[in-house]
Design brief:
Blueprint lengths: L2 E4 L12 E5 L3 E6 L5 E6 L3 E7 L2 H6 L2 E7 L6 E7 L2 H19 L22
Amino acid sequence: MSYIEKKRTLLFGLPWCFTTYTITDEKLSIKSGFLSITEDDAYMYKIQDVRLKKSLLERIFGISTVICFTGDTTHPELKLEHIKHGEEIKNYLMDASEEARRKRRTLHTMDIAGGLSDLGDVDDLD
């Protein structure tokens, strides 16, 4: 399954922008620009968390913003701004990223100490 969405203007939710979001089982791709084109990709297994935001204007025009928190060094936060079907895409990203991590047998271990990075040697604690 894959999704192709266009970024829309906040006013009336019309797709007048030059940004396209492509979501497949393997990766999330954001292509933006008119004369100078920039393409950002993130593999699905690197997506750690997904957030859905809807401002008042977005709710009025039936659009939303999906924010993906990734383990990618170049873009730790990918925003799919002003898209239709935001809830459906958020749920798909959550399921697909979990499935991609299972397939690759990866484990998310960022901040595993829970903010206790100055803990030192655990054997010395009583």
